[in-house]
Amino acid sequence: MTDERLINIEEKITFQEDLIEELNKTVFQQQQKLERLERMYVALAGQVRSIAESGGEDSKSLANERPPHY
Prior knowledge:
Helix content: over 70%
Structural class: mainly alpha
Number of domains: 1
Shape: rod-shaped
Oligomer: single chain
Largest sheet: none
Radius of gyration: 27 Å
Number of strands: 0
Number of helices: 2
């Protein structure tokens, strides 16, 4: 193998390693965001469930209230 070809291969490998590292960081950040969103979803679902189960005046009046465009 010529030196030029070897250098070219080493450059490509270095670029791929950098790209893989950047992709790993992106996937990690997306996973963290997904976990935060899942926690928020569980909390909101619990709030909706507790409001529905309480059968309070708010939930009944909202269910029978007409939308503003009527």
